[in-house]
Amino acid sequence: MRNCLAFLILLFCFLNISAQKDPNKTDNKFKRALQLISYMYVDSVDEEELVETAIIKMLEELDPHSIYISEEEVKRTNEPLEGNFEGVGIQFQVLRDTINVVDVIAGGPSETVGIRAGDKIVRIDEENSTGDKVDNAYVVKMLRGKKGSEVVLGIVRNHEKGILDFTVTRDKIPINSVETSYMVTPDIGYIKVTRFAANTLDEYKEAMTKILENDPKGLILDLRGNSGGYLRTAVDLADQFLETSKMIVYTQGRNTEDYIEYKSTKKGNFEKGKLVVLIDEGSASASEIVTGAIQDWDRGIVIGRRSYGKGLVQRPYALPDGSYMRITVARYYTPSGRCIQKPYNEGHESYYKDLSERMSHGELIHPDSITFPDSLRFKTDAGRTVYGGGGIMPDIFIPLDTTLYSDYYSRLIRNNVINSFTLDYVDKNRESLKAEYADVKAFKANFKMDKTFMSAFFDYAEKDVEYDEEGYKQSELIIQSVIKASLASKLFGSDAYYVIIHDIDDELQKAIEVINSDDAFIVHQIHD
Question: Which of 247, 305, 374, 385 meets the CB 3.0–4.6 Å disulfide criterion with 335?
């Protein structure tokens, strides 16, 4: 009944809009133009392609986030937000034309049949799967498939003779929203959320349940690089930190009746306690909804750099051939009334160049280069001044540290040298490393990057990147940290990467300092 009512309302809205325009100037005109091209143009044309191009160009006249999604792209586009896909359940890397299993997803179909990290897939359904044809797209095409279907993988494994065949039954594989969570200190929890998908809240609650077992005095919520997702999921996550009946966000469409409020409930599991939110220039949309609500209610301290600035709400509409138009239907506003959408009136190209412009005029390094007009001034619940338009400005700015990033380090990353080296190293030494280091804590404390180890790395790297002593000295800290973190992740899982790399994470270290300092929360008048 509710769906029928919604459909009737939607139909009425479309009919109402149609009644306000002259079809001879729109619908009929477009049909006639297409007919003339189809029948009179000198060459034959693909009408479907013409219509698709027309839709794309039409949407480009609106805003940067109203887009057309072809039928082929729909599933791929929706996968990250649906929170799963159907496949065999491995993390892989193609190295020297061979598929290397970096990790297996716990409880997934590959783990069930005994496939392990370090295995090499050399055959798929009796077809050789090595050589020039093998790239990421090839692996996805061959290993993904309908739930319940089978694929036979030929595996080469260290210390085993010949090729081992494993029959894997494909299943739904989760795409995790919570990338990692752990106690970053004995009394401070850390959760990194990478997207706002259908399964995000369940993953957050599972992670938070484990953190709460440690009776934390504070929590760091990491939304850096999180480009957003479902508005409803953002509301549900913000609800975890706010007391009952607090405005989280409101949306406003074209008409006054399109106004919708979203408020907090009694469901929160961390409504008290010190809270820090990490953001950066890659934090957008749903990330900004959560951050804006926490900042406007003075519930926590925001640390990092100015967020992306996407304050538009999109809704997908199906077209007859299975394609979609994702159209902006409203703007969202934080509790204080801020719309944080950055301007797009100078065209799409200018809009997408905004981040590079921020870098070029020094904003990512010097907060003084950011200016807000008085018209964008707003007040939080405690009376602090915050700003709208063009993203959320953090309470504590942390500049982007570029001093460690030499050209030598950049070349190592671009050529995938560190990842390839650590994959090889762990492949050859997995058993001895596991025997010596029981867990990531022991590995972090005791694994030494001595001269012999680094010499082996430089020899390996020399095949792709010429050694640069000055560049290495400039980037020594980050190179060694990334190597060690990459080794840890291949030994103990992806969470281990963060346990190591967070030692050189300026924003995270500042968040720990802030939570350990009562003064920071008093200055910002945050409710504890």
Answer: 247
Phi, psi of 417 (to 5 degrees): -65, -45
Q: How many CB atoms lie within 10 A of CB 247?
A: 18
What's the pLDDT tens digit per position in 82-119? Answer: 777 889 999 888 888 899 998 888 778 998 888 988 88
Q: Which helix (H) or strand (E) holds 333?
A: strand 324-333
Contact 492, 439 (CB under 8 A): yes
Bridge partners of 182, per DSSP, are 190
Rg (CA), the chain: 26
Reported pTM: 0.84
pLDDT tens for 202-230 read: 999 999 999 999 999 999 999 999 999 99
b/e per residue 40-76 (b: at least 16 CB within 10 A): eeeeeeeeeeeebeebeeebeeebbbbbbbeeeeeee
- 368 phi and psi angles, rounded to 5 deg: -65, -20
At residue 247, φ and ψ (nearest 5 deg) are -65, 130
Can you say how many angstroms the Cα of residue 405 is from the centroid of all Cα atoms in its chain?
23
